[in-house]
């Protein structure tokens, strides 16, 4: 609570650089927590998470620039479009499991990159879309903060709900979940649609904040990779894991890029990813949870 | 009217006819056994009844309603629970939560947490699993996992349970204990249809037995009738065995 209060009044004191760093941190927390919903809880490892961010960013920027809509509506509509996309592609693709789902989603993000390049009447192709920058970082800071709080709050609620238990059951054994009365198709689609809401909305906010998007930036694989590594580092399928992962990864990447300018930190993220998969597949949270009674429902 | 009735059920996998026009019925309150050599089509028949497979032809009636073509979760909510031949607990969840899932999702209209928590505790007590209540399912041994399969099935408030080889791989004491539970479950008004390889188990508790061989139903009758049926002996031991 105290931490939230500090974050809420911080813009009164902090300089632009600190706001920028925190704002991106909030974006990543929201992205990682939404990835957590479909991948950590439901078990469908999504390698195309950025697709929803990109769809949100493009929807919002196009409406902002060509139609002059208010950014409030364009960002919300970005979320709506991302959810529609999730339902449409989720229905066929969520039948796939494991690496097949991961690869199909990765391909989907490439398809959307290609569309953004080639539908140049709409997206201005590789030149990208630019809008006049907004003067202050502070509103963006608050919207990203709200996004992160909503993400963490919903995951907390879901992790303790019947819906969340249904998703975990699907992750553990989909056929068994089916045999126990869970409508697995519906649950997977709901989780997938839920995982698209915040990336869609925040994608629009991010685009307006940067005042420029192009296909490579809006559908950059590094958003997906960061979401995945943050979740795995902290512990996927947990509430706090993605936050811990985001703190470490963002801190590390800022610090390392400060010491060694350029893209060197990406190498470190890649290396960390490999080490994690081998030595700590449950993430940092798995060091704390006890062997027995580790699930949220067993407590008396 | 029987509780469950299969009408000329057929299931083909490509050119292989795994279940070949099988008729069967199970009356309310019965324990019915399904036996047959490996590959006879027993589990396939279960998978057709529980909604995992669409039958190539034929109908499944449950309580007067046709249920072939329903999804497994719909079949479950109609009141047919199943256990798996190789136990498949939700590994990262405790025994309690595994059972809770069955109650929350498997009942018609869905259960609420306030009703299901005490229900799950009751089932744990009934199965004498109190000591493992909070144990994650991945840490259970085979006998405990098999018991958990039954607990999860019971939690869905079924009228019929399909048990797929519940005592296979258990030692005689464990088998004895589980068979006692199965009889108690029947006495509580739940009908049971079960596949089993352990003959002693199936002979001791079944009211009737069906025998499948190469997908065809070759015999039906009381345990005594089945034990002396020449077709059954031939299916298991080969031609001429019963005269030797």
Would you mind describing this structure in some detail?
The complex is a heterodimer of chains A (300) and B (244). Chain A is mostly helical. Chain A has one domain. Helices cover 73% and strands 1% of the residues of chain A. Chain A has 14 helices and two strands; from the N terminus they run ααααααβααααβαααα. Chain A has a two-stranded antiparallel ribbon with strand order 1-2. Chain A is globular, with a radius of gyration of 19 Å. The model of chain A has no long low-confidence stretch (mean pLDDT 91). With 244 residues, chain B is an alpha/beta fold. Chain B has a domain of 170 residues: Rossmann fold, CATH 3.40.50.300. In chain B, 37% of the residues lie in helices and 24% in strands. Chain B is built from nine helices and ten strands. Chain B has a six-stranded mixed sheet, with helices on both faces. In chain B, strands 2-1-4-5 form a four-stranded antiparallel sheet, with helices on one face. In chain B, strand 1 and strand 2 form a beta hairpin. In chain B, helix 3 packs parallel to helix 5. The interface between A and B is medium-sized, with 24 and 35 residues.
